[in-house]
Amino acid sequence: MRNLLLLFALAAFTAVEANRFRQEFPGPYCAARKYDSCCRDRQDGCAQPISTTLCYCDEFCERGEHGDCCPDYEEVCLGIVAGPDNATSCVHKNHYFTPYDPVIVDNCNTCKCNLDGSVICTDDVCMVDEDLLRQLGHLHRSLGWSATNYTEWWGRKYDEGKVLRLGTFQPKHRVKAMKRLSNKGGSLPSRFDASEHWTGLIAEARDQGWCGSSWAFSTATMASDRFAILSKGREMVQLAPQQMLACVRRQRGCSGGHLDSAWQYVRKNGMVNEECYPYIAAQNVCKVHEDDTLITANCELPVKVNRTHLYKMGPAYSLNNETDIMTEIKDRGTVQALMRVYRDFFSYRGGIYRHSAAATPAEERSAYHSVRLIGWGEERVGYEVVKYWIAINSWGQWWGENGRFRILRGVNECEIESYVLAANPYVHEHVQTVRNVGELQELIVGTGYVPHPSRRYPPYGRG
Ligand SMILES: *[C@@H]1O[C@H](CO)[C@@H](O)[C@H](O)[C@H]1NC(C)=O
Ligand SMILES: *[C@@H]1O[C@H](CO)[C@@H](O)[C@H](O)[C@H]1NC(C)=O
Ligand SMILES: *[C@@H]1O[C@H](CO)[C@@H](O)[C@H](O)[C@H]1NC(C)=O
Ligand SMILES: *[C@@H]1O[C@H](CO)[C@@H](O)[C@H](O)[C@H]1NC(C)=O
């Protein structure tokens, strides 16, 4: 009954494999036999237990692929010693390899086996790793949100994630101090979700891909939302982030951009729609020019309104504080928020986000991003009422809560309340005036492209 079920095929091994085999099952086996270490011909009793079976030290064990010799048979019975060069084998996290094997990949790092048997790995911080996931798992309850291991992030360096998955620069002080708008208070509901209030008019999460273009996505999607809202669905347009990526000057394309320049561009130049300028997650040559119309830019014209002009927005203004932001969202639609991103945010799966101690590293470990705030709510957790914002990210709908996330509200978590922008669209003049939605909207809607809302809300910076 010897044989068919055998573990090993020593004879077929290369020297390297044989060496690995010996490392995995260090023996001794034949050498440990009491009377005769090695036996002639076939002797089924000339065996030693190994793992869950037996290995043999008789000559019969050498049968090509079906051999069942013990790991030390060659050395003990035949006197063959592996050459010193090829005797080297390294082990890294239970994985055996030699200096002759290709490097092995361990998450975002690679490891090589040195001739002296030591292993050297690159030492980059990965977007996610076992330690972070384990810590977030332990902290789950106290944090109020859960984490998951996204395949998309595994194997990527954190530096790569910070540049290519975010991409909004922190505003300069001068710009930060721009005109702020104070909304008249009034009672605010305890929860509000723009996508329920204006059903079908709020853009869901898109995926910026591996391109640091959140500055272009948050700007274009917020502008699109506001066109749809203010026109009551007549101007449902998906404005093209690609146009910004290609055309806004003094930005760094997929390496990031400033929100103020983005808004200045939308105000002065105007935007075309996605179909006319599809997103490719890379910078390309700008094909929309300042005096273009939708016709000269070769875009299809919308069917519901007689628009030929590009889609322009009035000047951006910033919101002061929590209640101002809430009033703005409720009265006029989604807003754009700058946000500081820590490493744990990438692994967010659901719940109310706050950055954790697991990811509170040095300053350079965080970077800025921009997202849309579309509403708010509150949730009772034990005796505590936790207030949150509802936000839409630009990492696709596979991330977070269908592309969205909730984050603590009222405590400037991740600086999310420190730089919140809004702007109003020049909807087409044929859209009917909406009487009961607030002064600013009447002003814009009632008069088409002019007068400029900047008469009420002075523009950003010097623009
Ligand atoms: C070591 O193994 C490699 C490939 O397995 C072989 O090309 C080389 O000649 C061997 N070197 C020695 C010293 O045996
Ligand atoms: C995370 O997922 C990747 C593949 O998607 C897998 O290779 C890796 O082992 C997982 N890591 C942990 C810690 O679960
Ligand atoms: C927000 O700012 C406005 C004025 O800009 C002020 O009336 C209001 O009380 C502030 N709200 C909070 C919560 O600080
Ligand atoms: C559409 O707009 C163009 C130019 O803006 C104008 O010449 C044309 O008469 C308009 N058509 C309709 C049906 O309003």
TrEMBL record:
Transmembrane segments: none
Keyword tags: Disulfide bond, Signal
Residues of the signal peptide: 1-18
Organism: Anopheles dirus
Listed name of the protein: SMB domain-containing protein
Classification via CDD domains: Peptidase_C1A_CathepsinB (cd02620)
PROSITE patterns membership: SMB_2, THIOL_PROTEASE_HIS
GO annotation (BP), single: proteolysis
Biological classification of the source: Eukaryota, Metazoa, Ecdysozoa, Arthropoda, Hexapoda
Family (UniProt): Belongs to the peptidase C1 family.
GO molecular-function term, one example from the UniProt record: cysteine-type peptidase activity
Record domain SMB: where: 34-82
